[in-house]
């Protein structure tokens, strides 16, 4: 009788999990609400215009400290070109448009005013849930090409105190993030020659009670938001830096970048809409995660140069997916020693699913 009851309970749990995909709303994730901030001027001279930002989101600012015609100017210049998008948006009335720019695109620079060497630097508009600190965030953005070329470099992030870069973010309240989904379109200056791309970064953090530091415990990115005229689906998978399942983030920061590649082009525009978080377990809602039934799984070498072996103590289905949530390899009903070839460097997740268990492992492939 107990076996029948267990079987029925398992069926009911499976049906319940399959029927309702657990999601969590991102604050103002459809960019319906906006806040206007006044510009800045000296007498009749306007230094920069009023600007708008999606409510609950933040952008960076540039600390300007200079003298114009014997007048000392000390203010924060918004590092953004942003606008509401109301044309065929994915959800509601508006999306958000972020444009890559130069500082001289933002400032009304009068003759005789010098703003230093940064006036010709091309910068992305960066939108974030947390309130970014300018100089440290620029350091973090400088690491992005390294992270894209060598995914093992992500391990350096777990020693950083993220409070130095950003304060605030989204409270997860126990929600286990699997991925961020959303809609985007991307417009470049020259469709035939441009290599610019938009990007979305996830940074999961956890407060270390012993040190008081907010440590990075996981994250993910999608820096492949390429040219498209219509709103298109995208995903950014969240991957933990630790194999310890108890090390989970209590806050999540989402960073949206108008340019996220190695080449930033003045005028590139990223449009985003309809952000939503999907729970980790719902990538395979039909599986039942029973800790007592979990088999022995060994992955080696890890990191690897592309060939990865998995040792399975019992029969299972194995699926490997990349940071975009795309399946790149799959083998069903296998056991013992199984091999996979992953040619592209990156961070992957191996999902092993049996009749009454599901477990995941992180894989790093280097050049």
Word description of this protein:
This protein is mostly beta strands. It contains 4 helices and 27 strands. The chain has helices spanning 2-19, 103-106, 134-142, 144-149; strands spanning 23-25, 34-37, 40-42, 45-48, 51-54, 61-68, 71-78, 82-85, 95-99, 101-102, 122-123, 126-128, 130-132, 166-168, 170-171, 177-187, 198-207, 214-225, 228-237, 239-240, 251-257, 269-279, 297-300, 307-321, 327-341, 346-353, 358-365. β3 and β4 form a beta hairpin. The protein starts with a helix and ends with a strand.
Short description:
The chain is mainly beta and 367 residues long. The chain has four helices and 27 strands.
What's the SSE blueprint?
Layout: H1 2-19, E1 23-25, E2 34-37, E3 40-42, E4 45-48, E5 51-54, E6 61-68, E7 71-78, E8 82-85, E9 95-99, E10 101-102, H2 103-106, E11 122-123, E12 126-128, E13 130-132, H3 134-142, H4 144-149, E14 166-168, E15 170-171, E16 177-187, E17 198-207, E18 214-225, E19 228-237, E20 239-240, E21 251-257, E22 269-279, E23 297-300, E24 307-321, E25 327-341, E26 346-353, E27 358-365
Which terms would index this structure?
367 residues; mainly beta; 6-stranded antiparallel beta sheet
Note the main sheet: 6 strands, antiparallel
Overall SS class: mainly beta
**Percent range of helical residues:** 10-25%
Distance between the terminal alpha carbons, to the nearest Å? 55 Å
Please count the helical segments. Answer: 4
**Residue runs with pLDDT of under 50 for 5 or more positions:** 1-19, 282-293
Apparent shape: elongated
Count all strands and give the number.
27
Q: How much is the radius of gyration in Å?
A: 23 Å
Strand content: over 45%
Average of per-residue pLDDT values: 82
């Amino acid at each position: 009788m107990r076996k029948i009851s267990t079987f029925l309970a398992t069926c009911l749990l499976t049906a319940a999990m399959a029927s309702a995909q657990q999601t969590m709303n991102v604050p103002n994730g459809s960019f319906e609400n906006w806040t206007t901030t006044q510009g800045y001027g000296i007498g009749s001279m306007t230094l920069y215009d009023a600007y708008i930002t999606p409510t609950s989101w933040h952008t960076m600012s540039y600390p300007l400290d200079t003298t114009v015609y014997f007048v000392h100017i000390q203010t924060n210049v918004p590092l953004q070109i942003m606008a509401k998008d109301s044309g065929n948006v994915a959800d509601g009335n508006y999306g958000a448009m972020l444009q890559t720019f130069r500082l001289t695109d933002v400032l009304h620079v009068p003759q005789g005013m010098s703003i230093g060497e940064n006036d010709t630097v091309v910068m992305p508009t960066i939108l974030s849930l947390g309130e970014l600190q300018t100089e440290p965030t620029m350091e973090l953005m400088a690491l992005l090409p390294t992270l894209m070329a060598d995914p093992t470099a992500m391990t350096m992030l777990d020693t950083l105190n993220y409070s130095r870069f950003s304060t605030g973010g989204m409270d997860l309240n126990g929600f286990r993030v699997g991925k961020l989904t959303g809609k985007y379109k991307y417009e470049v200056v020259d469709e035939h020659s441009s290599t610019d791309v938009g990007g979305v970064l996830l940074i999961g953090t956890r407060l270390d009670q012993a040190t008081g530091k907010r440590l990075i415990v996981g994250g993910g990115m999608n820096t492949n938001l390429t040219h498209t005229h219509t709103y298109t689906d995208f995903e950014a998978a969240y991957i933990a830096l630790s194999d310890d399942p108890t090390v989970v983030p209590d806050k999540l920061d989402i960073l949206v970048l108008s340019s996220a590649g190695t080449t930033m082009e003045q005028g590139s525009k990223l449009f985003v809409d309809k952000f939503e978080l999907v729970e980790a377990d719902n990538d395979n809602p039909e599986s039942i995660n029973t800790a007592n039934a979990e088999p022995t799984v060994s992955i080696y070498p890890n990191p690897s140069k592309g060939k990865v072996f998995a040792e399975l103590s019992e029969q299972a289905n194995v699926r490997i997916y990349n940071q975009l949530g795309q399946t790149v390899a799959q083998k069903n009903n296998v056991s013992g020693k199984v091999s996979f070839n992953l040619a592209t460097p990156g961070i992957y997740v191996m999902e092993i699913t049996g009749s009454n268990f599901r477990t995941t492992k992180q894989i790093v492939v280097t050049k």
